[in-house]
């Protein structure tokens, strides 16, 4: 009964939580495959242990976000600022931000209308990002810096060393 807990406790000293979950998945598959229809009692007891070992993501406060948006250098962090603004305004997943195109965003003067066509749930959604602080100014500045020779319509481009 304690074999799996001992195994994962020992591995928790050397591996990250993601590695432990991968190992758990493999062990579970092998054990269930070997035992076929029998339920193996040790497997459910390891889940609470693995959840306790998971690192929690740090969460930024509103004041930290405001401080970043106002004080971080636009030359270096403009794309991150725009991603942060759109991500928070629309509660977007990372892949939704990556797949945003310039055609998905409509600037209507006092706000942005953002269409997310490809979502995890396969249900397109729309949100409005209103102008708070200098949000629209940052977005327009980022869009104006887009090189004219770019062949694709992705909103976020990869920059390295200012290129």
From TrEMBL:
<protein>
    <recommendedName>
        <fullName>Tyr recombinase domain-containing protein</fullName>
    </recommendedName>
</protein>
<dbReference type="InterPro" id="IPR011010">
    <property type="entry name" value="DNA_brk_join_enz"/>
</dbReference>
<feature type="domain" description="Tyr recombinase">
    <location>
        <begin position="55"/>
        <end position="163"/>
    </location>
</feature>
<dbReference type="InterPro" id="IPR013762">
    <property type="entry name" value="Integrase-like_cat_sf"/>
</dbReference>
<dbReference type="InterPro" id="IPR002104">
    <property type="entry name" value="Integrase_catalytic"/>
</dbReference>
<keyword id="KW-0233">DNA recombination</keyword>
């Amino acid at each position: 009964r304690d074999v799996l807990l001992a195994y994962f406790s020992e591995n928790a000293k050397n591996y990250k939580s993601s590695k432990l979950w991968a190992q758990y998945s493999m062990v579970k598959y092998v054990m269930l495959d070997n035992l076929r229809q029998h339920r193996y009692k040790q497997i459910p007891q390891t889940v609470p242990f693995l959840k306790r070992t998971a690192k929690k993501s740090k969460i930024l406060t509103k004041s930290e976000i405001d401080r970043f948006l106002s004080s971080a250098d636009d030359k270096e962090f403009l794309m991150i600022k725009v991603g942060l603004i759109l991500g928070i305004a629309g509660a977007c997943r990372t892949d939704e931000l990556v797949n945003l195109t310039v055609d998905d965003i409509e600037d209507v003067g006092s706000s942005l209308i953002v269409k997310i066509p490809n979502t995890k749930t396969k249900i397109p959604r729309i949100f409005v990002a209103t102008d708070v602080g200098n949000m629209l100014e940052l977005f327009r500045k980022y869009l104006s810096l887009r090189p004219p020779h770019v062949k694709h319509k992705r909103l976020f481009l990869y920059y390295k060393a200012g290129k």
